[in-house]
Amino acid sequence: MQFDVSQSESKKAAIPHEIFLFNLIGNHILIFIASLGMFLSFPYPLYLVPVISVSCLLYTLWRAKRSLRVDPWFALCHWQIASRRAKVFIGMLSLLGTVSFLGWLGYAYLGMMKEAIYAFIVGIGLLPTMMTMLVLIIMESDGLYQARQCRVSAKWVLDKFPREGMS
């Protein structure tokens, strides 16, 4: 649904999508691949990826709560959309961490084969996380486009946060 909002409100509404896209593309893809290439000689940049990711995700969640009090309605809606998607990504990262931990336990204490553990972690943890990441990149790119076009298409956010003067 298209709304009549100012250019400054539209720019404010684009910020959560830009942060989330930076985290997904810039951090989890570009920084991760670049730091993975030099991991054997200099492993420290790889440790930045989870630090940056947690910072971006926590900021998005915190700022979405704060937007309920300080932001105009249109920006508030886009912060809530980004927050919901951040929660999905946190859930997938938690799944990956849990599966990795279970794999380590299976290898260290149950004597499972290393290859079986790799298949377990990749099949149940990494693959769903990467697929979710690709879907979230597409959804956030669309969210950024909608913010710039003064649109909100997420029906749940319109129902939960109705605009004043609209029924």
Automatic annotation (TrEMBL):
Keywords: Membrane, Transmembrane, Transmembrane helix. The chain crosses the membrane at residues 20-40, 46-62, 88-110, 116-139. It comes from the Bacteria. This is Uncharacterized protein. It comes from Candidatus Kentrum sp. DK.
